[in-house]
Amino acid sequence: MANPRESELSYPLGDTLPAPGEALEVLPGLRWVRMGLPFALDHINLWLLRDIVDGRDGWTIVDCGIHNDTTKDNWERVFADHLDGLPVLRVIVTHFHPDHLGLGHWLTERWQCRLWISATDYQLARVASASTVGMGGEAAAAFFGSHGLTDPEALEKIRGRASYYPSMVPRVPAAFRRLMDGMTVPIGGHDWRCIVGHGHAPEHISLFSESLGVMISGDMVLPRISTNVSVVDVEPEADPLQLYLESLERLLPLPAETLVLPAHGKPFRGLHARIDQLQEHHRERLAEVLEACTAKPCHAAELLPMMFRRKLDLHQTTFAMGEAVAHLHRLWLGGQLRRMLDADGVYRFSA
């Protein structure tokens, strides 16, 4: 859903966007790259930070784009035209999702450098690239079926997506350097503090530079859309929404004027306002879900038209189902709803 209170945010660069294969300077030594994605969310923002590692001048890349030839070709154009003749020295990845990690193996091999990522997301990526995690296959179809998704065509398509993650992350680098909450990473004369976030990914890492007044937020805070927070089949009783809301609270001590560099959308100011908007969004969704389940027992699939007032494709439906379950679980595990497994094998929630 687009942000109805977007006017409370400001965009220092206006509507200026880097073209594919180009880089736009945000601040001295900080450049913005934008790569395409084959989804309704059609782009990802990637970042270049001027750096010195082990006495060598070069660049650090933050996030990678998905694995495909178009993204590789666009990276090669960036390398040729926007690195000032210097090498890539390391690749930092905020979390394991395909648009962030997909080309991690190619970039680190291309430049003979190290991948930096949280340990949880690294290990999950290794598992997922060899199979799938929460995004397709028989287990995912069964999980969505247990929450009321009965459309045979949709379930068959979900079963057919067992190779969904490996198709965009075919390999994960064999070695990595671990990022942890509170850790400081010196990059190009500035200290960047790692801030862990939960709910969207297991151990998402955002980066904050106090000296620059900049946060690379990954997917934790986006200006126009709300971050996807889903329950998936590998952790079927999870409460990711509570984890996500707690993670937003951890960002409130950052300065209000922080320049936020999101993975999707445009760089913006108004971090505190955006956090308030996201908190309000989820309060409203929770209230709607509670009201619906008070009127009658509900499963997740029947809540989709209420929570998502637009036509959803299959990719969006899987995210929407995960998010509907997340809101039901927050109310269930918070004691406001009870969960019952019906004779048809579907979980229904009631007040």
UniProtKB/TrEMBL annotation:
All residue ranges annotated as the Metallo-beta-lactamase domain in the record: 43-264
- Keyword Cell inner membrane applies: no
Keywords linked to the UniProt accession: Hydrolase
Tagged with keyword Hydrolase: yes
Q: What is this protein called?
A: Zn-dependent hydrolase
What InterPro entries does the annotation carry? B_lactamase-like_C, Metallo-B-lactamas, RibonucZ/Hydroxyglut_hydro, Sec-metab_biosynth-thioest, WH-like_DNA-bd_sf
PANTHER family hit by this protein: ENDORIBONUCLEASE LACTB2, METALLO-BETA-LACTAMASE SUPERFAMILY POTEIN
Gene Ontology MF annotations: hydrolase activity
The lineage, from the top, is:
Bacteria, Pseudomonadati, Pseudomonadota, Betaproteobacteria, Burkholderiales
